[in-house]
Amino acid sequence: MKENIRNFTENEWFNVISRFADKLGVRVSKLRLIFIYLSFATFGLTIVGYFIMLFFFWIKDCFVIKRKSVFDL
Questions:
Q1: What does the pLDDT profile of the chain (73 residues) look like in tens digits?
Q2: pTM, two decimal places
Q3: Angle between helices 16-24 and 28-63 (to 10 degrees)
Q4: Where are the alpha helices (DSSP H) in 1-73?
Q5: Any stretches that span the bilayer, and where are they (predicted)?
Q6: How far apart are CA 70 and CA 46, in angstroms?
Q7: Alpha carbon of residue 60 to chain centroid
């Protein structure tokens, strides 16, 4: 039973890149490398986006004066 589940998961889940590379006619190692680079790039883009938003909020806080109440005008 365990062996059947293991064989099924290896053939159906872990061979996705291999089958995709066969259909495209590309080497599997190149396609795996592309997927690894894309995953790092998307992670890096989210961090860069976070820092850009943080910078704009910092700029906004420099120019907008926070008042405690309406009567502080």
A1: 888 888 888 777 778 888 889 899 999 889 889 988 999 899 888 999 999 999 999 888 888 777 777 776 6
A2: 0.54
A3: 110
A4: 2-12, 16-24, 28-63
A5: 34-59
A6: 38
A7: 28
Q: Which two tokens stand for residue 36?
A: 């690894």
Q: How far apart are CA 61 and CA 54, in angstroms?
A: 11
For every residue of 32-49, DSSP letters joined together read HHHHHHHHHHHHHHHHHH
Contacts of 32 (CB under 8 A, 6+ apart): 17
Among candidate residues 25, 20, 23, the one with its CA nearest the CA of residue 35: 20
Q: Which amino acid is at 51?
A: F
Burial of 58 (0-12, 13-18, 19+ CB in 10 A): exposed
Contacts of 33 (CB under 8 A, 6+ apart): none
